[in-house]
Amino acid sequence: MKQARNWSVLLGAGFLMATSAVGPGFLTQTTVFTQALGASFGFVILTSILIDLGVQLTIWRVIAVSEMRAQDIANTVLPGLGGFISFLIVLGGLAFNIGNVGGAGLGLQVLFGIPVEVGAALAAALTIAIFLVKEAGKAMDRFAQLMGLLMILIIVYVVFTSEPPVGEALVRTFAPTKLDVMAIVTLVGGTVGGYITFAGGHRLLDAGVKGPAALPQVMTSAVAGITVASVIRVLLFLAALGVVSQGLTIAADNPPASVFQLAAGNFGYKLFGVVMFAAAVTSVIGSAYTSVSFMKSFHPSINRHENRLIIGFIIVSALIFITIGKPVSLLILAGALNGFILPITLATMLVAAYRKKVVGEYRHPLWLAVVGVLVVLVMTWMSAQVFTQQIGGLFS
């Protein structure tokens, strides 16, 4: 019974991270960049998966062996750094969550024809109900698993109906004809940047899966999460590529919905509603849960009233969306912000991996350290390039 419970926690943490990564922004970004880069977008996906591995495996290991949350680790490395990182992550998490609530509302609008604002309110109510359950952690784990599997099954169907050129996609994944630094930074920032990187690690910590002895279980959970996110990423890319390769025009106002509709007709459009709702509502949960976990170090009472704060976070996100509307520019800004946060948080964790007062006698694998340093350098350079482009665009 205990072993079954443990597997549920491990898979739940993995799926929480994966479904947090696969939100409304993820669906839109994948479709838009596939339309722009064609089969060469496979290279961007491969790059993001490799970066994902280097980032997640290091961060999950350090959190587990230190038995501390990321912000506490950062404060141990440099006093005050944890507060700074927490501020950035909570700010980015709120920005994304406004879009996530809106995405869930859009999914319900597609399915039932109700106004987006009403759908957003209903989706917020559903996620709040999960945190009102006595065993909220268990409910969250199960819900993330169910929604993740549902998304995979639906996207597999759409891939078959869109008939993508799989051979060309495979070739261009390793030999791209087009490269786009902005695409890499955006995709990485939206899938392993900000709060997403810590969702699974913090969930395992709260579930008591921690310490050097738990590393095999932690790695199992991390790999499961990375695999799920990567599978969804690849399948969505293939579905969009199938539509693009047929010369069909993807609607600019809602690119992912257009892909599903062009691939499978009106039934496909309804399936998009299910996928959008599943992707958005799980991201609402992941964003709210992880953002509040970064507040726990500020005051002991926050830990005691965690679920209430998570519910408050969701309510604020929903109210901002309902009163102001879907902040597209805010989502873009949040994605860029996450791209900048990643090098800071990963560099902090790499330093912590070699501090005895943080990890004790634990020895971080050399290959992970090398990969981590490369990711920090590459993402810093790429983020600087994107930042320069954005600034240049403002004054041109």
From TrEMBL:
Pfam families, per the entry: Nramp
GO cellular component terms attached to this protein's record: plasma membrane
Gene Ontology BP annotations: iron ion transmembrane transport
Localization in the cell: Membrane
Keyword terms: Membrane, Transmembrane, Transmembrane helix
Membrane-spanning parts: 36-55, 76-98, 110-131, 143-161, 181-201, 222-251, 271-295, 307-324, 330-354, 366-387
The UniProt record lists the keyword Acetylation: no
Main location: membrane
Superkingdom: Bacteria
InterPro entries assigned: NRAMP_fam (IPR001046)
Membrane-related topology note: Multi-pass membrane protein
Keyword flag Ribonucleoprotein: no
GO molecular function, one term: cadmium ion transmembrane transporter activity
Name this protein carries in UniProt: Divalent metal cation transporter
